Amino acid sequence: MIDGLADAAYSSLDNKTYLQKAQIPNLDKLASSGLTGLLDPVETGLACGSDTAHMSIFGYDPFTNYEGRGSFETMGAGLPLTYQDIAFKCNFASLDTESGLVVRRRVSRKFYRWGLPLIEAIDNKPIPGYENYTVHVLHATEHRCGLKVSGPGLSHKIEGTDPLKDNLPLVVPKALEDSDPQAVFTAKLLQNLSNWIKEQLQNHPINIERVKNGKFPANTLLLRGCGVRLKVPSFAEKYNLKSFVIAPTAIIKGIGITFGMDVHDVPGATGDIYSNHKAKFDKASELITQNYQFGFVHIKAIDDLGHDKNMEGRIEMIQKLDSIIGSFVKQLAETNYKGWIVVTGDHTTHLHSGDHSYESVPFLATNLYELEKEESNFRDRVNSFDEISCSRGSLGRFPGSEVMPLIRSLMNIE
């Protein structure tokens, strides 16, 4: 799964998409040797998030099962959740204390190199004015962390503090429905928590020093995507497949935990553009040739570069990933592996806006055992892995809910 895989065409790329412009011979070979199509990760025309996209692709309908993003991020960061806790995906951000505006929603993707002591200052503390409630915080990736609040009678049906765009004030937490007393109570508690966190961070020596040196301080925490742990059947119960997940990105790791999949950590895999992607595929090669029937490898870097509007970096990264995927396929071939490889994305990320968009993403499924054969029963006439070429594929255009039935069909599982 290449996060944020697809995009639109741009005049600066000769009216091509970046996938068309990039040199990706290994992905092109997989496309030309297998079946291709276009995937709407949730449904046609919906600009979805990674959480709902992954739920849909794994076969868990986000319209009926989704209960907020925060639980995935928090469990993926390493904080266990009870079904009574509420949890948030959080950004360390920069607040202009004079204007009250959030001038930078993401303080720095390199936050983890200097900001981890800030987490220690707010972790495992009682919430002022609500001493029976405790906040726990743990770093996830880059500038992000997972945060949970424990205590009786909490509701996840509240709006958090993230203004969603730079240069806007913090949002005041509020209940989604004024008639919900638990949500109203929780919103007031979170306002106290947000104010207390700001005080702790603004007065921390790290931020005092950063302001002195003309750098953006990490002096507020945006509480985003309040959620609770889902009560759903496990992946094994749904599909009778023993599965693993390799996903250093906390939110995807948390989805794997939620669905009862075996989550494997890989040294050097960080969930950002500096991640050791080869190490992830080496681990996947080791695992899939053992007793697993289904493996899931998540790549975040392409999405990050899209959000940062870095066209050159995005092309360079997809070419690097193409080389690593080629080596991975070769490794599997040497073991005489007879399985399938599927490559797709969870949403488009537009470089012009730096945000998710609604277009479909390319999809390929290739039987590795027949990769070098001249004739195959599992091959269409598509020769390139990109948004335009895959639109002509034999699989057509289909929603995320059809991915697992398709995979099971290819595996001859009824």
Architecture blueprint of SSEs:
Blueprint: H1 18-21, H2 25-32, E1 35-40, H3 50-58, H4 62-65, H5 70-77, E2 86-95, E3 101-104, H6 116-122, E4 125-127, E5 130-139, E6 144-150, E7 158-159, E8 168-169, E9 174-175, H7 181-202, H8 205-212, E10 220-227, H9 235-239, E11 243-246, H10 250-258, E12 262-263, H11 277-288, E13 294-297, H12 301-307, H13 311-334, E14 340-343, E15 348-350, E16 355-357, E17 361-367, E18 397-399, H14 403-410
Description:
There is one protein chain. The protein has 414 residues and is α+β, with helices and mostly antiparallel strands. The chain has 14 helices and 18 strands. Strands 2, 3, 4, 5, 6, 8 and 10 form a 7-stranded antiparallel sheet that branches. A 4-stranded mixed sheet has the order 14-17-1-18, sandwiched between helices. A hairpin with a 2-residue loop joins strand 4 and strand 5 (130-139). 47% of the residues are buried.
CATH superfamily of the largest domain: Alkaline Phosphatase, subunit A
Q: Report helical residue fraction.
A: 25-40%
* Annotation, overall tally of beta strands: 18
Q: Supply Rg.
A: 22 Å
Label the overall shape. globular
CATH architect. name of the largest domain? 3-Layer(aba) Sandwich
Q: How many structural domains?
A: 2
Overall mean pLDDT stands at 94
Supply the helix-strand structural class: alpha+beta
CATH class of the largest domain: Alpha Beta
Quaternary state reads single chain
CATH-assigned fold name of the largest domain? Alkaline Phosphatase, subunit A
Distance between the termini: 24 Å
Sheet having the most strands: 7 strands, antiparallel
**Ranges with pLDDT <50 over ≥5 residues?**
none
